[in-house]
Design brief:
10 strands, 5 helices, single chain, about 150 residues, six-stranded mixed beta sheet, alpha+beta
Length: about 150
Amino acid sequence: MPYTRTYDNLWLITLTPEQHQRTCNYWYLVQQNFGPFTAFTTRAALLRWMEERGLSVDLEKVAPHKQHSSLPISGSFREAAYLGDADTFQNIAADAETRQLSNAEYTLGKITHDEDGLRTVHYLNCNVRTRQVFNYQESRDIHCGSLAEAL
């Protein structure tokens, strides 16, 4: 049985150049319950991440690049971490696959569209020694957006 957590009350924060200087090159932050959740270097990477999880934001209200804004993200999603039942994970009929950050490693995430309308990102817990792990920098560039894309 996986450990499952639902994420809601998500907010998108866009940064000014001064705020951006205090990050690891991020321009877009996602907060959950007003605490940090994830961050992105490029708008394209942010939108890809939101689309995978069935989330949306009113793009008309997002501030132009390099201006501050804070707005709610519509929707919620789940993450399900599997420990000790790798066979169950392997047999998940995914609608899509992604790279999921878990314990400072990017591993395979399987995305399902559930009957209740939410999407779930399934992945193997870091204690499953046989889980697939991807190259960190390549995965970070895919997930967050590469520096080259940001320029």
